[in-house]
Write a structure and sequence with these properties.
Blueprint lengths: L7 H24 L7 H23 L3 H29 L13 H7 L2 H10 L2 H4 L4 E2 L2 E2 H21 L5
Antiparallel strand pairs: 1-2
């Protein structure tokens, strides 16, 4: 069966499956390969979780044309947020190393001791953990692969939500 002719429901189920597989691999890297995620990695995971949930709800809901467009819009917005976070993360990884970067507190310490606004500001400014590249496949780090994944999921959501259906 041609994936381009799948129903909206099937395309959303496939999108959810891809998000879940990506999250599963991220947890494998964390727990089996012992690569600790930085705060920006955690935020990227949250976006994949949100996208998976929206894909699941869209597949279950089985909306008409306006609903499909609405789900596609929400998914594309989530993908854009993910791309923004991953792009910032990738940018941090390509900056010269800072000899004082190791002085920043860890994520768990920040969450326990700072207000959430300050914690988020510090996390998006970039911690020492975020600049370190500790995982590479085919020359691309995790945030680069996240950008590719978000872009493909967003394009897939657009395709699913905007294409005309046979009556």
């Amino acid at each position: 069966m041609n994936p381009l002719s799948w129903s909206f429901r099937s395309q959303c189920a496939a999108g959810a499956a891809v998000c879940i597989a990506l999250l599963g691999y991220a947890y494998y890297v964390q727990f089996a390969l012992h690569v600790e995620p930085c705060p920006m990695c955690i935020f990227q995971r949250i976006v994949f979780i949100v996208m998976a949930l929206v894909f699941v709800v869209a597949a279950i809901h089985r909306p008409r044309a306006a609903g499909r467009r609405a789900y596609a819009t929400v998914l594309v917005m989530a993908a854009c947020v993910g791309i923004g976070i991953a792009a910032r993360h990738l940018w941090l990884q390509h900056q010269p190393s800072d000899p004082f970067a190791g002085c920043t507190p860890g994520w768990n310490y920040m969450v326990a001791n700072f207000p959430i606004g300050k914690t988020l500001r510090m996390a998006f400014t970039g911690l020492a953990d975020c600049a370190k590249v500790s995982w590479v496949i085919l020359g691309l780090s995790m945030p680069a692969w996240s950008i590719i994944s978000y872009a493909l999921l967003g394009i897939g959501a657009l395709w699913a939500g905007l294409r005309r259906r046979a009556a």
